[in-house]
Structures are given as C-alpha cells and as structure tokens.
Amino acid sequence: MDYFSLPGRWMYYCYFIQGRNFPCSLFFTGRFLSLLVFLHASVLHPDPCLSHPQPCHILARIGHTVRLGVLLPIRQPARVQNALNRALTGLKHQTGDGIPPLLPYNLTLEVVSRSPLGGDPSSMSSCVCQEMVARGVSGVLAFPRSPEELIHIHFLSSFLKIPFISLLEDLEPLRNKDKTSQSLRGKSEERERMRERAREREGRKE
Fold first, then answer.
1. Which of 4, 27, 34, 85 is deepest in the core (most CB within 10 A)?
2. DSSP structure string for 85-124
3. How confident is the model over 95-143, as pLDDT tens digits?
4. What is the per-residue pLDDT for 101?
5. Is the Cβ–Cβ distance between 165 and 12 less than 8 Å?
C-alpha cells in the first residue's frame, strides 16, 4: 500500500495488485485527482491493453466501457456523490478542439456508485462484491472514515485483486495512529520514571 498527500483536506491511499505496477501520475490538482490517478493506472498503462481479450485496434473501432466503482460513505453519501458528479462534468468539459479525450481507444466511462447498509465488514464486503465486482468494475474509489474501514478496504483489494483508491478526509486515521503512538510512548516513559524512583529508594535504604 502506498500513499501520497496534497495540500488541503485529502490524502490518497493507493493499493497496488501484487505483480502489477499501477503508476500514479499527478496531472491535475483538486478533489477529483484520485479519479485521474485511477484512469491513468487502469487504462493508459499498456498492461491492461495487452491483457484484454480483444486487440486494441478493435477496441479503437468498436469502443468499450470502463466501469469505475465508488464505495460511498454511510454518512452524507449525497455530498460525496455530488462532488463526484461535478468532477466528472469538469473532466468532460476539458476535452475539446485539440485536446485528446480522457480515455483512449474510444473507451467510455461508467460510474457504479453504491453505499453499504452498514459500516461493518460484512456489509461492506457484500456491497463491493454483489453490487460492483459482479458488474465488472476495473477499480474502486472508497471513502473510509475509520482505521478499521481502511484496513478492511486493504483486505478487499488484496483478496479481489482490484485496485482501490481510498480518500481520507481530514487525515483522521493518521491522527488516530499518531495519538496511539504518543500514548504508547508516554506509557513507556512513565514506566522508566517508575524504575528510576525504585532504584533511588533502594539506594537510600542501603
């Protein structure tokens, strides 16, 4: 699992399939950067073209659809969905005269957005497998809200062999990790002080 951060409120976690290197290229800034990262990794990289059952020159003639799964958060899913719709609209408007299309080989993008019934691992797994993987998504955008959800998404990516990109708002999981490290460090320092006091008391008795 690799991650990179940008100025602002978002950090992007990228999960890579073992044996396949999906590069992350920063073409634009903004909240829809993760979508561009996914499209560059899954479509513009030569490996997906070679592994497709049809040659690329046929794809250029008949066209094809790339499906992107979006695992919406349980809280405020409409807010995330609206932001995603605005990002897709902005990407479509960027193509024009002299500007190459977002996807090569006449590929079209289809977004499959779903929200799990609950935050537990069972609900999340059912949503990803039954609502997204069954429809043939090439990758998934996720919005975990806790370290536990982030760990479960990493497990799904490893088990399903599908790239996941997790967007963490306000870096909450990292702050929780820092708090845990500080707590453990504080307990270690407290135990060391208690040992020093015990040695001082033993020295006074002698």
1. 34
2. HHHHHHHHHH--TT---SSSTTEEEEEEEE--SSSSHHHH
3. 665 666 667 667 788 889 999 988 888 999 999 999 998 888 888 999 8
4. 67
5. yes
Average pLDDT value for the chain: 70
CATH class of 2-170: alpha beta
pTM of the entire structure?
A: 0.54
Residues ≥6 apart with Cβ < 8 Å to 171: 5, 9, 11
Cα gap 140→163, rounded to integer Å: 7
Distance of CA 35 to the CA centre of its chain: 10
CA distance 170 to 24: 21
Look up tokens 């289809």; give the residue: 110
Task: Give the integer Cα–Cα distance in Å for 190 and 101.
Answer: 60
Q: Supply the DSSP string of 12-71, one letter for each residue.
A: EEE---TT----------STTHHHHHHHIIIIISHHHHHHSSS-HHHHHHH-EEEEEEEE
Domain map of the chain by residue range?
A: 2-170, 172-206
Q: Which two three-digit tokens encode residue 18?
A: 């073992």
What distances in angstroms separate CA 27 from CA 34, 51, 140, one per listed residue?
10, 25, 20
